[in-house]
Amino acid sequence: MKSKIAIRVLLSILIPLALFHLGVLLNIVPVEIIWGGRLNSNSLVYLLESISILVTLYLVMILSIKGKFLGPILPPKVVKISLWFFLILFTLNTIGNAFAKTTTEQIFALITLIISLLLGIVLKDKG
Questions:
Q1: Which of 5, 127, 13 is nearest to 72 (CA)?
Q2: What's the pLDDT at 55?
Q3: Residue pLDDT, tens place only, 87-121
Q4: Assign residue 15 a region: left if phi > 0, alpha if psi is -120 to 50, beta otherwise?
């Protein structure tokens, strides 16, 4: 698979993922199905979900730069380091989700695995 296709697939996964996190913030998605069902404070939910949205949108920006959908607003080295960071983050998240107690998070393990594999394809590209 070519890097540009991998980036488009990633963007098509990440944008709905950001909307999912927004749904949690807006109480559309039940909080019990995220973070292992262990969040018992609304302020903690808002904090963690806000961070999740910002991190997801940062990855969307990084991928948009790498795919040349956005101009080079960050140096290539920052883009590459960011992509490695996200590959490690999503790989660890896959492991955590695979052993989660909730079925929803176990399903998300498949999604995070796909994201990890696609990030690997993007990183493999020399461009």
A1: 127
A2: 96
A3: 999 999 999 888 877 787 888 899 999 999 999 99
A4: alpha
Rounded to whole angstroms, the Cα distance separating 5 from 74 reads 21
* Dihedral sign (CA 71, 73, 75, 80): negative
> What's the DSSP call for residue 113?
H
Domain boundaries, the chain: 3-124
**How far is the C-alpha of 75 from the C-alpha of 90, rounded, in Å?**
23
Q: Rg (Cα) of the chain, in Å, rounded? A: 15
Alpha-carbon distance of 106 to 111, in angstroms, equals 9
